[in-house]
Amino acid sequence: MKKIGRSDIIGQRGMAHIQGVVNAMGFMFYPTGGVEAGIDGYIELRDTNTGEVSNLLLQVQGKASERDRLQGDTETSFEFPCSEADIAYWTQGTAPVLLIFVWLKEGKAYWKSLKEWFADPERVKARKVVFDKFSDEFTAEAKAGIVSVAAAARPGASGPSVRIDEELLTNLVGVEFGETLYWAPTRHATNKTFGAALRELDREAGSEWIVRGKSVLSFHDLDRWPWNQLCEAEAMEEFDVDEWSDSDDEDRQRDFVELLNRAIGEFVRPQLYRDRDSGVFYFRKPRDRENLNYAYRSLQNTTTRRVVGQYGKKKKDPNKPSYWRHSAFLHRFVRLGSKWFLEVTPTYHFTHDGREPDGWGGERLKKIKEIENNAAVMGQFVMWRDFLVTHGRGDLLRAAYPFVSFENVDALHLDVGVPDDLWKSHESDPTSPLFELALAGETVEDLAE
Amino acid sequence: MKLLHLKEPPLEFGGGMRHPDIRFGLMDYGPLDYGMDGVPKRIRLGIVGSAETVEGVARWIETCATGFPAKESRQPNLFPQFPGVGFEQTFRCEFVTSDELQRVLPPREIARLVAVPGQREMTRAVVETIANEIAALSERSSKPDVVLVALPIEIIQRTYNARDAAGGEESDVKEAGSDLDFRGMLKSACMRLRLPIQLLWPTTFDPSFKIPRKLKESSDRRTQDPATIAWNLLTAIYYKAGGLPWRLARDARQLRTSYVGLSFYRSLDGEHVHTSTAQMFDERGEGLILRGGRMVESEEDRKPHLTAEDAYELLRNSLRVFKDQHGHWPARVVLHKTSKFDRNELDGFHKAVDERDIDYADFVWVQKSMTRLYRMGVYPPLRGSLVRFDKDQALLYTRGSVEFFRTYPGMYVPRPLMLRCQALGQPLQHIAEEMLALTKMNWNNTQFDNGLPITIAAAKHVGEVLKYVGDEQEIAPRYSFYM
């Protein structure tokens, strides 16, 4: 009677698992078959979109086990023992070798690039491979890692694109504005004289108006007090806002942007101040406290961020801080694809006493930009977006701000992405703050202190 | 709003072979013109400097022949080795120098120059001295192909100031200050000698050389590894010696296109704004230079613009240059400009295009943008990310995370380019793909992720030099004299 041993079946099941995962990545798997010294097959990389194959090959050493417990088994890892001859064979060849271990009991597989693992002489001495049950799992998600191993083996090889679906944010916030604009002749020729006359009548009167060629254009109804005192209210005209917002005339667009700029200046009150020189809006320091934390909804949860804080030590008096740092943003109203947006650029404002600008502000801004990465800036943008979207909504005590409001813009989707962790592991200094994901959030404050 | 990703455009190297990366392309296939007639086989390098720098540079040229190892890193595609030069290697030609191609400034002369009081006077004196040395080399019976100017550190310290060294990529029009830009002045002074020059810092041949902190900070001169330095310098020298290292990989079915970049520069007295133009031909990747008219303030946006007549003249001349080179008119014209085309400019450019019956014209207003994308991770968006707002407006990432390098080779968050097409002959995505490809045509940098397309980058460089060239003086037509 002919027989096929149990171990052959286990081996076959292991190979079938590997083949399935490799195919799910969109790559080809060729089992060696027949006589082999330790390599069970090859993975050929292939661009899943174009179908192109570029002769980038990886050798696979497959192992499978039905055992209940593996060597050195813990919650997070297990070990795989290797012979000295195996290690020598794997590491001396030209093509990279992957060890893929299939644990049939759990229906899971794990992988390791052997040349990289055994590049450390200590590990050669230990004669074992330690698998991490999470980061080494061999599923279709391991594709980026596999590509990187193949591409690193041959510098200059570009490997197929890593398809990682990603959501990206734009630094844009949608803008809604009042429906009506009011226009009337006035005897004032400039914003300055009109403004002065207006404040004489009412110190609290809003700034959502502009003077152009002896006429005033405004979000406020000019037929009411105090406006009717300063213009010929009987000659007043009402316009739909879209006669300005949708106009292609450059002068009208410029005027409309100026009106919006005046409106946002009122909108952000009283929490934010505007710096005259740089034009940024920043959180003002509270009178009674040195620091200010702001609570908001980030992408996942509610969190707080320190938005005003004191930093450094004065040389003359080490008990005093040398400066205050205020979270800030630069803004610009832009019309893109016939819609209006507020473009928000996160930045910082520096003061030497919580109020007056700090002479070293430029230097300090440069320094912080050296350690802030995409995640850090994105985190700050999300805070500002939340501020703009929730601020001025109105509540029981206060009416909603009438002339502008802001809303979230949907994230954009892309089917090509960046494997952050993998790339980070290849940086010459992965400990650099530049690659710190934690910088994305509030912890930036702890680092600076 | 729609987001998509453009693949890294391939470049063409020797034997018509393609590669997305410059350095690996040169390593594997050699330069584009390898095997063609008239390609440089033996590039003779002149050197001007102090006894120390001349010797250092001569030694460095020798070392280049055997190459430099890759920087120790796990990013082999970002920092590859420089395998050396020779008939079988990289540029497939020799780079040589010899005593009779070298000019050493005596220590007394250097001391005299450093002692000249006043930044402007000192800069003028250094330019004059060096230009005289180069003139002496140009009169030799066997002339060098390219002259390397290796300034001693004492002179660098006095001639470079923070603004010059930072490079003018950020501002559209350079302000005319009291300080003179040494580089631009020297290039303009040497233009009549018809010898391209290449400036070198002592760090090139001696990595341990300490550049004073003040200069280093302002100049973006983070110390590069020797292999990267060799790649960048030898590529620039190869191009200046008349070689063509690579070109855009093109489909034969594509229209014969002339790419024109427009930039502006303020005259030395600060009173006028002039146009400078760099023109690229598709199949040769060669840059030709034109000087455009003086700009006037436009009624539309109160900013400097060309008059309709000057715009017409400029494009008409540019088309004529194309015809002279090819024997026929281009089928398509692409204009890149860093400010809006106003009514008069559009009229003038359209008139020149219509006169030659050119059916396809794309006038693209290109600006660095503050509108950005944020990824949900530490690395910024990928280079090649494209957000379309409209049929004629899009945001393109030319700097950002690069899949081939497996990192973001930059600091902070990159600024993308806002593209606005004011005349559209091709689909917007095609315009963006072309723009991305043109960022790889910078012969000064072999790391391919440049921020600006060469049309605009070259036009800016040209302006920095033309500023010092008098109105009546003839200008050199090749980009080699400006880069």
From TrEMBL, chain A:
Span of domain DUF4365: 12-148
Among InterPro entries, the record links this protein to: DUF4365
Enumerate the Pfam families for this protein: DUF4365
Q: Which domain of life is it from?
A: Bacteria
The name this protein goes by in its record: DUF4365 domain-containing protein
Name its species.
Sphingomonas donggukensis
Automatic annotation (TrEMBL), chain B:
Checking InterPro entries in the record gives: Piwi (IPR003165), RNaseH-like_sf (IPR012337), RNaseH_sf (IPR036397)
Residues folding into a coiled coil are: none
- Organism, as annotated: Sphingomonas donggukensis
- The protein's name: Protein argonaute
Per the record, the similarity remark reads: Belongs to the argonaute family. Long pAgo subfamily.
Record domain Piwi: where: 146-471
Query: Origin, by domain of life?
Result: Bacteria
